[in-house]
Amino acid sequence: MGFLRFVVWSALCIGLGIFLGTYQLGGRTPWQAMQGAWSDQAAPRLDEVKKKLGTDAQPTERHSEEDRKAVDAIISKRSRG
User: What 3 state SS string does 15-80 have?
Assistant: First the structure.
């Protein structure tokens, strides 16, 4: 019974993939229509969110000069011994 269920679901998934990739509705396949909808609606919004979040910005360093000297001292001790 499990093997039969596997074969049926596999056939349905393959059939759906073939339909999405080949059958034309209004001159475009359903897959092309989904890609067009994504690029028209979701992609610009995704770019806006990325700009608001500032994902490309480098982190700012917030260490004092004393902190840097302390870290340098620790590093120099480890490299010697």
Answer: HHHHHHHHCCECCECHHHHHHHHHHHHHHHHHHHHHHHHCCCCCCCCCCCHHHHHHHHHHHHHHHH
In this predicted model, what pLDDT tens digit does every residue of 54-73 receive, in sequence order?
A: 755 666 778 888 998 999 99
Distance CA 39, CA 46 (A): 10
Environment class of residue 32 by beta-carbon count within 10 Å: exposed (0-12), middle (13-18) or buried (19+)? middle
The CA distance from 34 to 42, in Å, is 11
pTM of the model: 0.45
